Amino acid sequence: MTMNKILNIAFALAFAVLFVACNPIEKDFGTGEVVTSTDQLNVTITPVMFKTYKTNKYKVQCKSPVVCKWSTTASYISNDTTVLLLGKGAQNIKLTAMAADGSLLTKTYSVTVDSLYYPVPPQWGYLCGSSSKTWVWATDVTGTAFPGAAAGKCYGNGGYLANNSPGWWTCGLSDLTGWGVANDKMTFSLDGASMTLVTGNSQTAGKGLAAGTYGGTYSFDMSKTKASSSPPSASNSNTYAIGQLTLSGVTVSLGFQPNVSGYPSIYTYDILYLDNNIMVLEAPEPSTTGAWGTAWFWVFKRQGYSF
């Protein structure tokens, strides 16, 4: 594997939110020696303090002769830097160190965050809580859960930039049960910005991920907004999409294009609504270019939440 490929892998690894006690974690070894194991890494991880509280920033340093990548929900390529953590309580910071011979050494450091003193985009907390959160189909969604909600309907299609939930072909619990996906679960974690889908999908091969467990990563781009052609939007404004959610290596439950040959998987979704309990996603069909073209909708809720 070339140096560029290794660095690209490092950049792709996502942030792991982590924090340590007031006393730094330290191991002292001679920096002139050849590093062959994680036990030889001379690493110091120290919290940035606010009064007596460990904040969500940590100073990370490695004095060993290696190239370091620190991962939280983002990645930092540096032997001496500061990382931002997105949750409170016990967190993890992952170090991937490339030794002189090109070998990769990995080690995860457990730390603690007392205070989110430094600003964190609220979407991370909505999606993952303080560490991870599991989402399921909102089969009991009410018509008043958000503007444009369809009672009991959590999957289907409708008008792009117009409908806020399934509006044409609308599906609920009985449909999901018939496809084997009614009990599907998606878990989003701050640790490495990772996502896991557990699905029971029993449809014809190719229509979404087959029954099983799948893992991948995710990212947000809250600058990717879209205007509504028929307000109010799901967020009760003129803004239709409040951002985009992009997945890699995994999709949401039924995350495919039903009307396109080969049923291609969908990895980018418009976020129409997101709070601590409800997530509404939408994706247009590839041929859709304007308002009222065909789009697909997914309505999920936090596991354990009832409308």
What does this structure look like?
With 307 residues, the chain is mainly β. The protein has 2 domains: 38-119, Sandwich (Immunoglobulin-like), CATH 2.60.40; 125-302, no CATH class. It contains 3 helices and 19 strands. The chain has helices at 3-12, 122-128, 173-178; strands at 43-50, 53-62, 67-71, 75-77, 80-84, 89-98, 104-113, 132-137, 155-159, 170-171, 185-189, 194-199, 212-221, 226-227, 239-241, 243-248, 268-274, 278-284, 294-302. The strands form 4 sheets. An 8-stranded antiparallel barrel has the order 8-11-12-13-16-17-18-19. The protein has a 4-stranded antiparallel sheet with strand order 4-3-6-7, covered by helices on one side. The longest helix has 10 residues, at 3-12. The model is unreliable at 1-31 (pLDDT under 50).
Main-sheet strand order equals: 8-11-12-13-16-17-18-19
Largest sheet: 8 strands, antiparallel, barrel
State the total count of DSSP E strands. 19
**β-sheet strand percentage:** 35-45%
Shape: elongated
Task: Tally the helices.
Answer: 3
Order of helices and strands: HEEEEEEEHEEEHEEEEEEEEE
Which range best describes the helical content: under 10%, 10-25%, 25-40%, 40-55%, 55-70% or over 70%? under 10%
Mean pLDDT: 90
Low-confidence residue ranges = 1-31
Query: From the helix content, strand content and strand pairing, which structural class follows?
Result: mainly beta
* Gap between N and C termini: 51 Å
What is the total domain count? 2
Radius of gyration: 22 Å
